[in-house]
Design a protein that fits this description.
Elements lengths: L3 H11 L4 E5 L2 E4 H18 L6 E5 L4 H13 L2 E4 L6 H11 L1 E7 L3 H5 L2 H4 L3 E4 L8 E2 L19 E6 L9 E5 H14 L7 E4 L6 H12 L3 E4 L5 H11 L3 E4 L1 H9 L13 E4 L6 H11 L3 E7 L5 E5 L8 E5 L5 E4 L16 E6 L13 H7 E2 L2 E10 L5 E6 L4 E3 L2 E3 L1 H9 L4 E11 L3 E10 L5 H10 L10 E4 L13 H6 L6 E2 L1
Length: about 500
């Protein structure tokens, strides 16, 4: 099987003059970018990095970061990307945990790098407007001639992602070249990509979605449009300027795009295919996105850093809330919450924990130096996701949240996603998140945090829930009206932040 370096080389040989990457007005063909990538690979080796070493890369989605990612694939170096909002403490943890040998960074994280003793002791590479005496400037890595660098094989580690660490310290997720390539090929197939595709590279390259966009375009000689960080106006400009043909975003970013005052369907007319992942998309948002883009394909991906895709639904707007059926390289089960065996399978409509077959071609091999995490998540050849869901009578999977997000009120299990879907279609609800807040009488009380377009009467929202057929015990007993819904840097809703808030304004009814 090809490794990723050979995969990129094949694209260079097929279409050397095709545009491979752009960053604002800066652009490179496959032949030009390959020359840069090879030069950087040689330079990394000259700095002292060898096959199997970890290179920590902390940058926004600029062309230098994409180039470093590919250079590592050729050199057999394990690219280890980290959130550019990381603190010095975050960097210190990752450097020690991953046994990092060098750090590459840009101005977005310069303060944290300067404050991190572990980073200061390592070789450093800087990109953009950064002052760091003793560091290697990225531009100095270019123009280095030499033999072809092609060190990695399919069984070597391509990259190590770090999970968000919502429960304890972040965990390293090493992924092999063959798993990364297989995931990228599946992404191409499941999104019906063609040779002339152009994608928006705005999902961070420290996130599995960003990496998938980068790799999938290279496999089909496509065009990867770097957008350093998400900004609705800049993103709309990039879509319009480059004629972007497909988008792969978290639901929050779609919401921010279509709600922006400068959005118009004419500005995104080139976009024909949409995909989303990272979180469920509410029925209300799905309808608005469908109307705004009118895509020929609207795909829901459900997966994780550990195993790229669990399920796929290429007709997601036909059945809002559905995550579809197992993807090309996966088998899925729903088992009892708390099960120790993958054989404790639940029936149709029964909600439990979603598990995935570790024999799937996209699966990781286990966490980096974390046998405790392996024992918790890997059981009898299956990956226990900590996500909850159920299969309907058609065989489609519905993801209802995290095991920790399940609301237990008055002894009844309530899925927040079901309630969010009902409230999201109310015309005055812009965004809504439902969580369980501690309550002496009920254990937890169903609470809806609502970002409204204009003032809404709570009674009106309750009547809407009744008219929608939502069971009485599932209806919110409290509503909290907020200006913004808290989200992570990649747009995931932070339910734990809402659960931790003091909510004196919450009104039970």
């Amino acid at each position: 099987m090809f490794d990723l370096g050979r995969s990129f080389l094949a694209s260079v040989e097929r279409r050397p003059r095709a545009i491979a990457m752009s960053d604002g007005e800066f652009r490179k063909t496959y032949a030009e970018w390959f020359a840069d990538i090879q030069s950087v690979a040689r330079s990394l080796e000259a700095i002292g990095l060898a096959k199997g070493d970890r290179l920590l890369v902390v940058m926004q989605n600029r062309w230098q970061m994409a180039t470093l990612h590919w250079a590592c694939q050729f050199a057999g170096i394990v690219v280890t990307p980290l959130n550019w909002r990381s603190t010095a403490r975050d960097l210190s943890y990752c450097i020690e945990d991953a046994e990092v040998k060098a750090v590459a960074y840009d101005a977005s994280v310069a303060e944290a790098v300067n404050s991190c003793p572990e980073a200061q002791r390592l070789p450093r590479i800087i990109a953009g407007e950064v002052e760091d005496i003793g560091a290697h400037d990225f531009d100095a890595l270019l123009g280095v001639e030499g033999e072809l660098v092609l060190r990695a094989g399919a069984e070597d580690v391509s990259l190590m992602l770090y999970t968000s660490g919502t429960s304890g310290k972040p965990k390293g997720v090493p992924r092999l070249h063959r798993a990364e390539r297989t995931a990228a090929l599946a992404h191409v197939a499941q999104n019906l990509y063609r040779h002339d595709e152009c994608t928006l590279g705005v999902m961070p390259l420290y996130h599995t979605m960003g990496v998938r966009s980068l790799l999938s375009m290279a496999l089909i000689d496509g065009h990867f449009v770097c957008v350093p960080k998400f900004d609705p106006a800049a993103t709309l400009d990039a879509i319009e300027r480059e004629g972007v043909t497909n988008l792969y975003l978290v639901p929050t970013l779609y919401h921010m795009l279509i709600e922006h005052p400068e959005f118009s369907p004419s500005r995104v007319a080139s976009v024909d295919k949409l995909g989303f992942a990272g979180a469920p998309m509410s029925a209300g948002l799905m309808a608005r996105v469908q109307e705004a883009f009118k895509p020929s394909l609207f795909v829901n991906h459900y997966g994780s850093s550990e195993i790229y895709t669990f399920t796929i639904d290429q007709r997601t707007s036909d059945k809002p809330g559905s995550s579809g059926r197992p993807a090309l390289n996966q088998r899925i089960r729903v088992v009892r919450v708390g099960a120790e065996s993958p054989d404790e399978i639940l029936g149709v409509g029964e909600e439990g924990e979603i598990i995935a077959d570790m024999a799937g071609d996209e699966a990781f091999q286990g966490y980096w130096h974390r046998p405790d995490a392996d024992r918790k998540a890997l059981k009898e050849g299956w990956y226990f996701t900590s996500d909850t869901g159920y299969f309907d009578a058609d065989g489609d999977l519905f993801v209802t949240g995290r095991v920790d997000d399940l609301i237990i009120t008055g002894g009844e299990n309530v899925s927040p996603v079901e309630i969010e879907n009902v409230l999201s279609v109310h015309p005055q609800v812009e965004e809504v998140v439902v969580v369980g807040l501690a309550d002496e009488q009920w254990g937890e009380v169903v609470t809806a945090f609502v970002k409204a377009r204009q003032a809404i009467d709570e009674g009106e929202l309750d009547r809407h829930c009744v008219d929608s057929g939502l069971a009485r015990f599932k209806r919110p007993r409290r509503y909290v009206f907020v200006d913004e819904i808290p989200k992570s840097p990649v747009g995931k809703i932070l339910r734990r932040v809402l659960r931790a808030q003091d909510t004196p304004s919450a009104q039970p009814h």
